[in-house]
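Tip: read the tokens left to right.
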């Protein structure tokens, strides 16, 4: 069954609801973003939830990432910037958490380059579309057939996380085409920026879990 991550959480009530309807991962953003939260805010968001905690960072100092990963007991450190392979390796080897490296897909070459660069130093590669509005949370999709074409060469021990432009209406098609391990949604289940629509969250999780 495909895992589900609800990201860009800014309110505890949204995290608790996503957890209650079966989300596997709950993401809080520490990178520059309208949805950016502080460490103390993140604690309150995750309080009382059982899903795995994902912290989203972008080109942050290694010591800051590691401190937050330890203090907040993160299950996953998601890197959304220009972090190189050596950076990913150091973060991954410093604790028991997983490391997911995001890649903004422009064409088949950028996808292949990301796979070559990070397959050996990350536990997962997150694929999203490119947008001039920036990385993450902007609903940018890409041609899923590019990812599907790599299914035969994708390492079996590397998780594929699909993000960007997903919602309850298209997530089953996306899963059927790409066969990701995890689907990741933020803006696709929002009523307003940062405010999750609980009906949309429930519908997204339900649709994804049919695959």
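Filled-in amino acids:
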């Amino acid at each position: 069954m495909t895992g589900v991550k609800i990201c860009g959480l800014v309110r505890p009530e949204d995290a608790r609801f996503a957890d209650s309807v079966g989300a596997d991962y709950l993401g809080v953003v520490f990178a520059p973003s309208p949805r950016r939260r502080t460490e103390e805010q993140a604690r309150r968001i995750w309080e009382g939830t059982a899903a795995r905690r994902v912290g989203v960072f972008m080109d942050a100092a290694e010591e800051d990432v590691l401190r937050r990963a330890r203090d907040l007991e993160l299950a996953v450190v998601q890197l959304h910037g220009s972090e190189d392979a050596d950076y990913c390796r150091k973060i991954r080897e410093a604790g028991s958490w997983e490391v997911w490296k995001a890649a903004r897909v422009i064409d088949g070459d950028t996808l292949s380059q990301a796979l070559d660069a990070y397959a050996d130093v990350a536990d997962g590669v997150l694929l999203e579309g490119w947008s001039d509005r920036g990385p993450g949370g902007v609903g940018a999709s890409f041609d899923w057939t590019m990812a599907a074409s790599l299914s035969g060469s994708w390492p079996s021990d590397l998780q594929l996380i699909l993000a960007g432009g997903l919602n309850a209406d298209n997530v089953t098609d996306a899963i059927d085409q790409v066969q990701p391990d995890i689907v990741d949604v933020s803006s696709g289940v929002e009523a307003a920026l940062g405010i999750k629509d609980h009906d949309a969250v429930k519908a997204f999780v339900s649709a994804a879990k049919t695959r």
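The helical segments are 12-20, 39-46, 62-71, 85-93, 108-118, 144-148, 171-178, 198-208. The domain at 3-208 is CATH 3.20.20.70 (TIM Barrel).
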